[in-house]
Amino acid sequence: MPKFKVGIVGATGYTGSELLRLLIHHPDITIECVTSETHAGKRITDIHPHLLDISDIRLESSDNISDYDLDLVFLALPHGVSMSFVKEHGLDKFLTVDLSGDFRLPNKKVYEKWYKKKHVAETYFENAVFGLPELYRHEIRNARLVANPGCYPTSAILPLTPLVKYDMIQTSGIVVDSKSGVTGAGAKAKPGTHFPDLFGNFSAYGLTSHRHTPEIESVIHNYTGYTTEVLFSPHLLPIDRGILTTTYSTPKKEVSKEMVEELFYSVFEKEHFIRVVDRPPLLKHVRGSNYCDVHVTYDERTNKIITVSTIDNLMKGAAGQAVQNMNIMFGLIESTGLQHIPLNP
Amino acid sequence: MPKFKVGIVGATGYTGSELLRLLIHHPDITIECVTSETHAGKRITDIHPHLLDISDIRLESSDNISDYDLDLVFLALPHGVSMSFVKEHGLDKFLTVDLSGDFRLPNKKVYEKWYKKKHVAETYFENAVFGLPELYRHEIRNARLVANPGCYPTSAILPLTPLVKYDMIQTSGIVVDSKSGVTGAGAKAKPGTHFPDLFGNFSAYGLTSHRHTPEIESVIHNYTGYTTEVLFSPHLLPIDRGILTTTYSTPKKEVSKEMVEELFYSVFEKEHFIRVVDRPPLLKHVRGSNYCDVHVTYDERTNKIITVSTIDNLMKGAAGQAVQNMNIMFGLIESTGLQHIPLNP
Amino acid sequence: MPKFKVGIVGATGYTGSELLRLLIHHPDITIECVTSETHAGKRITDIHPHLLDISDIRLESSDNISDYDLDLVFLALPHGVSMSFVKEHGLDKFLTVDLSGDFRLPNKKVYEKWYKKKHVAETYFENAVFGLPELYRHEIRNARLVANPGCYPTSAILPLTPLVKYDMIQTSGIVVDSKSGVTGAGAKAKPGTHFPDLFGNFSAYGLTSHRHTPEIESVIHNYTGYTTEVLFSPHLLPIDRGILTTTYSTPKKEVSKEMVEELFYSVFEKEHFIRVVDRPPLLKHVRGSNYCDVHVTYDERTNKIITVSTIDNLMKGAAGQAVQNMNIMFGLIESTGLQHIPLNP
Amino acid sequence: MPKFKVGIVGATGYTGSELLRLLIHHPDITIECVTSETHAGKRITDIHPHLLDISDIRLESSDNISDYDLDLVFLALPHGVSMSFVKEHGLDKFLTVDLSGDFRLPNKKVYEKWYKKKHVAETYFENAVFGLPELYRHEIRNARLVANPGCYPTSAILPLTPLVKYDMIQTSGIVVDSKSGVTGAGAKAKPGTHFPDLFGNFSAYGLTSHRHTPEIESVIHNYTGYTTEVLFSPHLLPIDRGILTTTYSTPKKEVSKEMVEELFYSVFEKEHFIRVVDRPPLLKHVRGSNYCDVHVTYDERTNKIITVSTIDNLMKGAAGQAVQNMNIMFGLIESTGLQHIPLNP
């Protein structure tokens, strides 16, 4: 079988770097071009020295994209830049997996409210499929534009949708308390990510205003038909990789610990990358892998359902999920090239 | 003024070590004796080498306690051992500040249910005052036995009591999502605290069953008159010191962000160790100090009141609070010897 | 081609776990049996929960080893236990790669001096080949017993041997200042590896007495013919994985920065897992991979040659190197199943 | 006794912040003014929120310095800026403790070679006393300009000077292998200090070219009369605070472990802030304190003297030492206001 040809647009950030880690050894694709506007002309190892002897790719400008005959392009670009790329290139030349937030929300209006930024490619919202394979596998198969989910939303939507869909929980008062490693904030040094300030530290941020809130709510609505109200509270963990999300919700009817566990086992039984675990999961048990570990329990005393889920934010929360989407779009086995065993300890 | 004479029973753990850090330079007391059953006869610097040139105390058996004329004894002992000490020595010889959980709960029955352990000194429950000065300052002043609060409960009770007492929130459905550094698990090496397994890791534990749950509920009840249902979920942060607690509750009546902020400013205005902050607090801003930083906000979209509070678990969560209680019991200014400025960064 | 059949004896430690990570997806072998005396009967996921859905192996006693027709056995056992296994099973039934220190030293006498332990299988010293492929590839190919190198020695021998062999440095006064992550101390919790005590901490240990000293010296002697005197100083880094070793030595003759760099480029040119880098290497650039990054420079002012090398102690320092040895012993391409790209950041 | 009046010029960095931590509670001084050019007009708590309720100082421009009647000024300014301040204000108005590197080296020529920067106040080199009290206590007492030592040099000079001065070691071939926490790189976020890149990482840097080399050599020369050649290799530890320095040197004559230990005990016997320890010291045993812990040993096998020393780089390596110098200049007891017990664990 001839290999599929892919390009990576914007390869100097953490998600670009992680895409390279996954795609270099992917058996069914070749990386045709890798772009960076600021570093065009340099070797990839000038930017990512850990790839020495592994890849000798040269970075080029995304203007060169049209010179290649590509099957698919990953956009590892900042919010606001992806939409310009899509506007310029359209969706006919190649399939597109966008890792930014530009096409995750239902429409321009919601986008502009939460991202405080004008959307320049609104006509493409109708083409975009939300790239969470466990929910939208069939739609992804035929999509030309996949909006790869945010890392926080991935960790929250996976445990919440079964509860909402199967009428287990009330749709208001859902609390999502998330804790993320610092790679989630991107590869660029900024005052808030200076090492000595974060080391040994911990804090909440973006309470009541984080842009992942509407992403969680709109996907749950789209998938289950229910309108939910989700309070999303992100916290910054003093580690490099990983998100752990704890959710709290109130049962709609009488439930038991066994009932919610069975629901999770049955919903996720055939999912390669979802592991239902019988104890609260540990972040390092998914490090470097594409797994999402999910735990659910019910507290009789307070009548609350609790879920705890873990992902590596650069894998199932970004690049791993993007490759999973690519596999689906190409008709490959979904886990191809994604068999990384967690790096533990 | 002659100095007060104190003893530390059980000085080889983290709280014992932190008590020494605070008491060695305390201007109004002298440390008369420091005990350890396993290390009696050794110098304190054999166990705590960082005290070299600072203290030349020798450890002795607690059997020797009666040889001293003490004003107050700190019990830095494991749960279950403190009560035996109290049973043996009574409360007449010296004032007692117990840093274990043996006298924090309202009675023997609740204790035995949550601690899975027989209580051997139940008659002293009626003497014990819960040592949270911001709530029970007057009772502490006249107490002979102070039950020093748990670290998690301190971080949860301080932000929750104003909301409950001033009728701001519904008493059911209160979620307390706490994250603690590893010193909270004690100084003894165990499988769960092996460095490589925790480094870069994060997890929840003790969901629905942690013994700090009844401590939080019973103190809120005792102080406010309201019976609450609190879901307490602890998580283990891969750092040494510090607890950050996020709480979620539902307003009882119409509220606004300004209203809850004003409530906190007014309730804590005169509290030396409580700092109401207008942004989510950072753990390192209280490291090594006796402060509790508290933030409160209201999310209109989901109608939830959120609080975030931070303490150093060995200070306001243990030894610092114990010294604060001692100061009150001795009639000293409450902040004497506790003016440590946070060690940041 | 039929697959080779291997066993892992002692799979519950960190090197056992890392061997599983590497061997489960190795294309040319099957894992026939995995042993643990203390956990025989349990599933591997009871001990290593991160392998859930990845492996359903059951642990058995090493007494069962004889029931299998094995091509090779990895001994991931503590020092002192491997030699008993070898004594019992001999070398005829299967090839053996021993990850302990039992056969790394030249003979019983040196072993007993540094390990303070009686050696019970001394006749096998003559069979043992030191498993550093970059030095002993040909010998490994025909060996029946490979003594897999220690993690520290691997990081020190690789940069030092070219300098000694090509007569670049004086053989006395060689300083090896090593810094290792805590997984090097094993998977068992002990007082010295309690999380709060190591977090944010750093120290030297085992100055002048570490048992890796004779391993470094004897291998350099065996390989180059020169007798050296190496001062080896280990330090404990507050991280999970990785060793960085800085060496200092004095030129024997006139050298230049360019000369030593060229030597390294030429010596390591064809080595798949050695990357000569032109700047001091970073630990995370080898994390999770089998690479050893090596940097060399010359300081004219003080007339010293400096090398800095990095490895992942569980990979090139243990399990990765063991699999590399296995590949050689089986006549496979040396990098088979070891193409892990460093997990960075 | 009326209190001494001091100013802090440049208070927004880490050393400025640490000076505030030390001076706010210092019993014999008052902080008259605190300056920042970029934040003039703001409250100190806008920049250092952890000082909330502790200090209500307002930042002002250093132009205002002349409005105050100050006894002493701390310059917590970047290299290159301090000298302009000294040039402008001279040394008559107030005593000056400069925490930058501008006056640490012997003269303009050496400065410009290593700092690659023009020196604009060369006439003041002759006034500057190197502020290491253990070496220059008497000179500091009468100095009007004290050049506060660099953090690395402090950790290297303290263990090396006894060995050089008492003729114990050869003056060439001295290796100084230092490991520093990241606060040593300053409070400003830069690409090299981005949290995810340093977390769990470790590396050497500035090999053969670090500007602390001439500081170490010139101070040893000045103090002992011997010209030494020191190879200084800094490494970056993934922690916030602390420097550990390991030195290696060759005896000039026959020595023993006991001899070098006795030398250290006798030299440092009366030094309040130097603790000679009989085991390799731990970084956290000095955290937050002004101690320097020093260990010395001799390796007979390789005939090398090894020292290991630890400091908190913001304390004995910067602000703590600056306050120690101030105490001496004011004729106060040297440890006044510096009695912080190490924050361990």
What features would you highlight for this structure?
homotetramer, 345 residues, alpha/beta, Rossmann fold, Dihydrodipicolinate Reductase, domain 2, 7-stranded parallel sheet, 7-stranded mixed sheet, 28% helix, globular
Q: If you had to describe this structure to a student in words, what would you say it looks like?
A:
- Chains A, B, C, D: Its main location: cytoplasm.
- The structure is a homotetramer of 345-residue chains.
- The first copy, chain A, is an alpha/beta fold.
- The first copy, chain A, has two domains: 4-149 and 316-329, 3-Layer(aba) Sandwich (Rossmann fold), CATH 3.40.50.720; 152-313, 2-Layer Sandwich (Dihydrodipicolinate Reductase, domain 2), CATH 3.30.360.10.
- Chain A has ten helices and 14 strands.
- Chain A has helices spanning 14-23, 44-47, 82-89, 108-115, 133-141, 151-165, 195-198, 212-224, 257-268, 315-329, and strands spanning 4-9, 29-35, 59-60, 72-75, 95-98, 128-130, 145-147, 174-180, 203-204, 230-236, 243-249, 274-276, 292-299, 304-311.
- In chain A, the strands form two sheets. In chain A, strands 3-2-1-4-5-7-6 form a seven-stranded parallel sheet, sandwiched between helices. The first copy, chain A, has a seven-stranded mixed sheet with strand order 9-10-8-11-14-13-12.
- Chain A is globular and about 60 Å long.
- The mean pLDDT of chain A is 97.
- Chains in contact: A-B, A-C, A-D, B-C, B-D, C-D.
- Chains A and B meet through strand 8, strand 9, strand 10, strand 11 and strand 14 of A and strand 8, strand 9, strand 10, strand 11 and strand 14 of B.
